[in-house]
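USER: Write out one fold?

ASSISTANT:
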Amino acid sequence: MSNNNEFIYGRGAQLNVSNRFDAHNHEFRDDFLNHCATEGDEVQNSKTVLIDTFSKSIVNKVTSPDVGMGFSLNPYQGCEHGCIYCYARNSHEYWGFSAGLDFEQKILVKRNAVQLLEKKISGKKWEAAPIVLSGNTDCYQPIEKKLKITRQLLETFLKYKHPVGIITKNALVQRDMDVLRELAADNLVHVNLSVTSLEEKTRRILEPRTASIKKRLETIEKLSRANIPVSVMMAPIIPAINSHEIMPLVKEVSERGALGVGYTIVRLNGSIGAIFTDWIRKTMPDRADKVLNQIESVHGGSLNDSRFGTRMKGEGEFADQVKQQFKIARAKYLKGRERPLLNCDLHEKFKDGQMKLF
């Protein structure tokens, strides 16, 4: 764990917390920190490192009753976007890394993702069901611009006429509009854009390496105009940070063509509680206690909430207020809109990658 108080710009987490699976912890001693300050050296390397992995499987069955997906696929583990609140941070500990800075700096790349997907969905026992890209970490994070694994995955879904969902907060999804249009023509794709705030200043401190708000709103509009179904996730809602933006945000994305809006309320499970607490005391010291206390009020007096049924939406007065605001906002700005169900009927005819005549 780092005791360094220097703010790290361009990153969300400001420290590496201890990995719960490690028997030993480490920290930076004052004499080392003083030496770095004197010599002008970095306390720790801030560069992003790519680590190649070769998984045995790529499609994950989702058993949580709180998540609206049956299967997910993540071509990358770790995420350079650096969203301070991200629930996926805890999963980096299973790889032997910290949920803090390591999550943003050490990105695991599943090099054989496309081959594994093709093997899975062409298998005789597989029955078509929507597979969601980015159930854990963003499939359009910065490195995707170079590696194009997500694009190859989408081309594979198109080849086999298989339904796919996408969750992202990166405008890079616009790059793949050609493939998305073809998928949408057969009702095989739905895109969820994550928009947490309309205020760029808030976006920069919450999600330092994500696409700008302007770019995300532009992306919603372009996808909608191309007849690619697009919805928005306002996730998470954080008390006293973006909770006042519900009505204006729903209004704005509805005008851009969004078919629906979903939300979650922030929960700080596992190591994320310590990471978020350290971050907010450095970035918003004047309101840190207020924010942390209100988060606790939503989750039974704790930052940590793992209870199915309540962990995503919370409980209590604040949670009820959020629920009511979304009900009003949807009725006012999204009335009559609904996203079409993804088509699971075509895949069986294309199980070998081409249309079966008989």
